[in-house]
Each structure stands twice: as C-alpha cells, then as structure tokens.
Design brief:
Among the domains are: 270 residues, no CATH class; 68 residues. The protein contains 26 helices and 10 strands.
Length: 507
C-alpha cells in the first residue's frame, strides 16, 4: 500500500541526521531509524501504544503467533528514503511479504513537531500504513478500497496524550480538497469502482472513503451497518448490493454523507492508557546501516534495477567482511538478482561467522532449489539435499515463516505432490503471516487441489479485493466467481502461475 501526496521537497527538509543508526525493538515492531537513542525509544514506544490502542478499540486480543513476527519499520530521512523507495510523491508504503513485512516511511521529525492534529505529517503516513498491516494480519478478508483506505485514514489521525491515552478519529483535514472537489468520486464509484469506474485521481477514494468510514463508525444511527456490509461482501454479495442491504437507500446515504461533510463531524474516540511499553534500543552496526537503503530498495523496485543494486551491495559486503548479518542480507539480495553463485558464496560467508543464522540457511536452500529447478532435476537426492537447508533452519526456529513456506514451495518447484508435512508447514506459515499474498495464494491453490472450495475462497478474498489489485485481469476475483459456481478445477487452472519464478520464489 502506498500513501501518495504531492509535496514540495523543500518542505521535507529533515534537519541533521544523527551520527548513528538505532534499532528499537518492542513486542510488535523492529524500528530502524536515523535518530538519537532517546528519539528512537520514544518513537518505538508510540508505535507500540498505537498497536495496543487499536487492539482495545477493535476488541482484538494479541495473537501470540503474530507476536513472533514483529513488523519492520524503516524510518528514513529524505535522501536515504527516496533512494530506497525510488518513488517521487510516495511518502510511505507498506509491503506485506512472506520474507518479512515492512513499512518504509519518510522520517521528518522537525516537520512533525510543527504539524497540528489533522495536518499531514510523516507520523500520520506511518500510522496509516501500519493500520493496513493491522487490518490484513488480523482480519484478512475482503475489503473494498474505500474502506481499506478509510480505515487507515481514520486510525492515522490520532493524538498521543501525556497521560498515556490516545484519541483516535480526528478529521483528516489534508483530505479536504478531495471532499470539496467538483470531480470527487461518485458514491457508485466509491462503492464499486470495478463496475462504475475509478476516478482519474485515485486519492479521491481515500478522501471520501475516510469520510464514509468516519460516519459509519461514529454515528449512532448507523451503528452495525458497516459490519453487515462487510459480512455480506465476504459471503460473495457484490459490493453495490451489499451496500444496499446494509446501508439502505443509497441516495439517502449519499445525501447523508454530504450533510455529514458540511456539518459537525462526530467526536473522536478516547482510548485509555495501556500497560507500560518495553523498548530495547541498540546502535545499528555500521555495515548494516550502510546496507539498509539498498536492502529495502531491492524489495521495492523494478527487476531491471536488481543487478545494479546487488553490485553496489557486494561492495558494501567487502567493506564489512566480519558482519554476518551484512553477508546474509547481501546473500538475499544476490539471490533476488538471480546471481546464484554469489548468493551462495555470501551465505557461506555468513554461516562461517554465525552457523545458526536462519536467513542465510534459507538462502542456501533457495539457491539449491533454483539450481535443481533450472536443471529440471528428477533426482530425489538432489531435492532432499536442497530441502535439508529449510529443515535445519526450521529446527533452529520452528516459528520462522520462510523455512516453512519455502519447504512447501520446493515440492511445487519439483513438480511433486506436497507431503502432508509440507502442507502442514504451509498452513503454519499462513497462521504466522496471514497478510502475505504469496502464502495465501499457495493455500488457495493447495485447497483447490484438495477439493476444498471454502478454504480456497477464504484464502483468496483479501487478494481479490486488495485496494491496489490490478484493475484488469483480476484473476483472484475471477477465481472466486468460479469457486462460487463449484468449478474448482477451472479456478485452480486460472490461478496457476505462468512462470517458474513465482513457483520457486514465493515473494
């Protein structure tokens, strides 16, 4: 997900960077930030308070499985941010991945200190993106774009009070132009853009989606309607029909929404203080700090740039030969760039320094699987040796997602029927990383092969209705229609990847 706004870069001057990078860890976050130790601690504590507040607001208990997999936050100053992102006009993004979901956020502390509630700030962007992660990892079902973005905007406009409480649901004043514009999204475009067309400026859906979400969540006369709408959508009812069932007369809804915009908005919600937050802050080793923008960049940019990034990372690895994490991350990057020999060598260097380093073991397995797949090997010993790397990584950390998921995909790459153990590994990875589209797609394909349409449908819904799904040839959405017609074999054929990379790489 990407938070898009056009702002003159002169406004983003972030002040001097700190001499060292910090890494702050809490129960749900690993924050990498170019700032002082005190600021890193405060920033991480605020994120953890936000998570606790959302759980209280939405009645959600902490899931021990997901707590095993904290999300990575990269809060970068202007120059490293735009190097990592390569995305002018995009000030924050959320990337759900099997290999580790992360948020890349522009860090502008000086600007944030001056921003008033309801104005744009880099913190608002970060809270918006984390709200996406919160939604997709805790409630991975079908959401229309207006609510996905409206939910994120609703949560993002939050104040953190001195007594430890939070106030959620302030007006998103920076969306005012999109609400008053003569070219705003129509209600039908908002509710069902697949059929009624997307507005030329997609940010109009963010604006009106926020307003509709705010009204439905806070106005007492419409209490419960949002849940009714989402439940109908997830039963397969088309969005516009689900809206009519839940909200009643859509013309009245449109009128009410316009009156709500021009009138007094409902008051925001106060969330009481949560328990104390534990934060551990360390100084990031120089090599890891130097590699960080490249490590994020290669997970975001077009494939045509992979080689250049990998070559630059190789130079950093040479400067820090004794840092196992640097060597392991470079191994991942070399693998992404399809330089298998160099990936193998970097993983070996990492393991020589730290034999129990799980990510390096996973790279060894991925290289071995790729070589076997490219060679079209039918030798069971070759495949067993490749999978042994995943099994070793799993023994070291049974709850690491990639060894579980890659073990399953190795059978797909070998054109073998996955063993019951491999299927269990896939299902466990789905519990640990429910936001991963790659894992959910694998679950859907496996369920369709097993004749389990209900599980396949559940796995596909959040992919099919992703707010940033491809607007043409939305294959998951077409597959859902086939599943509802009990055409499971046809649905599976439609979803099977057309290139080998998708089978062997996961995400």
């Amino acid at each position: 997900m990407r938070w898009i706004v056009w702002v003159a870069l002169a406004l983003l001057a972030a002040g001097p960077a700190s001499a060292d990078w910090r890494q702050a860890r809490t129960a749900h976050f690993i924050l990498s930030i170019d700032d002082t130790e005190a600021n890193a601690r405060d920033f991480a504590a605020r994120l953890e308070r936000f998570d606790a507040g959302l759980r209280l607001l939405y009645g959600l208990k902490d899931d021990p499985a997901q707590a095993l997999r904290p999300i990575s936050i990269y809060a970068l100053r202007e120059a490293p941010y735009f190097k990592a992102c390569g995305c002018p006009g995009v000030l924050g993004l959320y990337t759900p991945q099997a290999s580790g979901s992360f948020i890349l956020s522009l860090h502008t502390p000086d600007l944030d200190r001056k921003a008033k509630i309801g104005q744009w700030s880099s913190l608002v962007v970060l809270l918006h993106e984390y709200s996406h992660h919160f939604m997709f990892s805790n409630f991975p079902v079908a959401y229309p774009m207006w609510f996905s973005e409206g939910f994120a905007e609703f949560n993002a406009n939050t104040s953190f009070e001195d007594d430890g409480s939070m106030i959620v649901g302030y007006p998103a004043n920076y969306r005012a132009d999109g609400l008053s514009s003569a070219y705003r999204a129509s209600l039908k475009q908002l509710l069902d853009p697949e059929h009624f067309g997307y507005p030329d400026d997609v940010s109009l859906i963010y604006s009106r989606g926020w307003l509709l979400t705010h009204m439905l969540m806070l106005r007492h006369d419409r209490a419960g309607q949002l849940n009714t709408f989402l439940a109908a959508m997830n039963r397969g009812v088309p969005s516009i029909d689900a809206a009519a069932q839940a909200f009643g007369d859509l013309k009245k809804l449109d009128t009410d929404l316009d009156l709500y915009r021009r009138g007094k908005l409902a008051a925001p919600l106060r969330i009481p203080p949560g328990p104390p937050v534990a934060v551990t802050v360390t100084t990031m080793p120089r090599g890891q700090a130097a590699l960080l923008p490249l490590y994020v960049q290669i997970r975001e940019v077009d494939k045509s740039l992979y080689l250049g990034i990998a070559m630059e990372a190789e130079g950093i690895a040479k400067r820090y030969p004794d840092d196992a994490v640097v060597q392991s991350q470079v191994a991942e990057m070399e693998y992404t760039a399809k330089r298998l020999d160099k990936a193998d060598e970097a993983a070996d260097r990492a393991l020589a320094l730290q034999p129990d380093l799980g990510p390096a073991l996973v790279v060894k397995g991925r290289v071995a699987v790729s070589r076997a797949s490219l060679a079209k090997s039918a030798d069971s010993k070759v495949w067993a040796a490749a999978r042994a790397w995943y099994l070793k990584a799993n023994r070291l950390d049974p709850d690491a997602v990639m060894p579980l998921y890659m073990y399953y995909t190795s059978f797909v790459a070998a054109n073998e029927k996955p063993t019951p153990g491999a299927v269990r590994a896939l299902m466990r990875s789905a519990v640990l990383a429910p936001e991963s589209g790659g894992i959910r797609m694998a679950v859907a394909l496996q369920a369709l092969a097993d004749g389990d349409g209900a599980t396949a449908r559940q796995a596909l819904q959040s992919i099919a209705y992703s707010p940033h799904a491809t607007r043409s040839k939305n294959l998951p959405l077409e597959a859902l229609k086939l599943i509802d017609q009990e055409k499971l074999a046809e649905a599976r054929t439609l979803l099977l990847p057309k290139d080998k990379d998708r089978e062997t790489d996961g995400e």
